[in-house]
Design goal:
Keywords: GTP-binding, Magnesium, Metal-binding, Nucleotide-binding. The protein is an alpha/beta fold. The chain has a single domain, classed as Rossmann fold. Helix content is about 30%, strand content about 20%. The radius of gyration is 17 Å and the shape is globular. The chain binds guanosine-5'-triphosphate and magnesium ion. The site of guanosine-5'-triphosphate has 20 residues, from helix 3.
Length: about 150
Amino acid sequence: MEDKGQTLGLASCHLMEVYSQRTPRWKAPGSRGQPTLISVFPLYRKVTLVMVGLDNAGKTATVRGIQGENPQDVAPTVGFSKVDLKQGKFEVTIFDLGGGKRIRGIWKNYYSESHGVVFVVDSSDVQRIQELRETMAEVLQHPRIAGKPVLV
Ligand SMILES: Nc1nc2c(ncn2[C@@H]2O[C@H](COP(=O)(O)OP(=O)(O)OP(=O)(O)O)[C@@H](O)[C@H]2O)c(=O)[nH]1
Ligand SMILES: [Mg+2]
């Protein structure tokens, strides 16, 4: 397997870039781009991401990699784990959700508040490709995901 943490680190920057382009910075009327209170004291923008994927795909290991922690020896996620981190001008909240079959029912509860989805795939797990296909289709077709950036 390749280094999922590093790949996701780069890709999550891209997700935030997309989000940034969609939400232009507020400017005072008539300011013509001069510094405003907001640009002099830039505020962190809050971004919420939901991380999903089959169990054992490497979601929690990836989050640990992003945080600079050891991605080895992680236990399966029961329920979810919430991770807050800062990335440039963004305050990022990642909901790392358990991928077990019985836990997947809770995923949809996080879609509304999320700006984007990170779908983690273990590409070496060819045995479960059909399960992956069906699970991914269900996520991508969900009405609360439609139109939002998705990183695989
Ligand atoms: N070699 C290698 N092992 C990895 C990598 N990513 C994850 N693992 C291992 O794969 C196993 C499962 O990783 P997890 O991060 O717990 O998977 P998960 O998607 O969070 O699983 P659930 O919480 O059950 O949904 C762990 O033993 C990790 O150490 C990787 O990039 N390389
Ligand atoms: Mg996990």
